[in-house]
Structures are given as C-alpha cells and as structure tokens.
C-alpha cells in the first residue's frame, strides 16, 4: 500500500538555504533510481526560517524501510545529517480506507 513520509529537517541556524540545496542534490542523485520511490516535494515553514519539510511518496512502507537501511549502510544521508540542528523527524502515513 502506498505511503507518504513527512520529514521535518531543522537546519543549523542560518543554514536553511544550504540544507535545501544539499537536499535537492541528494534527492536528484538518490531518489530516481530507488525501488519504490515515487517522488517528493519540499516545503519551507513560514514561521521557522531554518526548517524544511519534505513529503515523499513511496509504493510501500517496506520499500522505504529497505531504502533507509541501505542508506544507513552507505552513509548516503550523512552530509544532510551534519547540517541539522536536531535529529530529523519522520512521520509515515497512509490514506484511510
């Protein structure tokens, strides 16, 4: 079943633009080839100048889980994590029947 993942990314103070550029680069290089990844959209938070939100679409929770395990093993997201003021928060949701 298709899912969405809402990811909250809090950049270190004043570094949101850098985080945004890096996130765009990572999604462009990592996203299209990932099995089960259907795309994502990024948003700015109007009342928090250092926060970005990404909403990603996946074919299934299993496909996302496999991707996250592989990314952890390869360190694909390490540069992004270094730019964060706090650990990212991910909420996985699915549409109600």
If you had to describe this structure to a student in words, what would you say it looks like?
- The chain is α+β, with helices and mostly antiparallel strands.
- It has three helices and four strands.
- Strands 2-3-1-4 form a four-stranded antiparallel beta sheet.
- Strand 2 and strand 3 form a beta hairpin.
- The radius of gyration is 13 Å and the shape is globular.
Would you kindly provide a brief summary of this structure?
The chain has 97 residues and is an alpha+beta fold.
Looking at this protein, list some descriptive labels.
4-stranded antiparallel beta sheet, single chain, 35% helix, alpha+beta, 3 helices
Chain-averaged pLDDT: 93
Q: For the largest sheet, list the strands in their spatial order.
A: 2-3-1-4
Question: How big a fraction of the residues is strand?
Answer: 25-35%
Q: Report how far the terminal alpha carbons are from each other.
A: 11 Å
Order of helices and strands: EHEEHHE
Shape: globular
Helix content: 25-40%
Tell me the major beta sheet: 4 strands, antiparallel
Radius of gyration: 13 Å
Class by helix and strand content? alpha+beta
What are the segments in which pLDDT stays under 50 over at least 5 consecutive residues?
Answer: none
Number of helices: 3
How many β-strands, per DSSP?
4
């Amino acid at each position: 079943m298709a899912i969405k993942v809402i990811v909250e990314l809090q950049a270190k103070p004043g570094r949101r633009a850098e985080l945004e550029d890096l996130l765009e680069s990572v999604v462009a290089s990592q996203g299209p080839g990932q099995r089960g990844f259907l795309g994502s959209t990024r948003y700015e938070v109007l009342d928090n100048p250092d926060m970005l939100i990404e909403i990603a679409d996946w074919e299934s929770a299993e496909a996302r889980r496999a991707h996250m395990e592989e990314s952890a093993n390869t360190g694909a997201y390490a540069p992004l994590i270094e730019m964060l003021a706090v650990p990212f928060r991910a909420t996985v949701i699915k549409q109600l029947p």
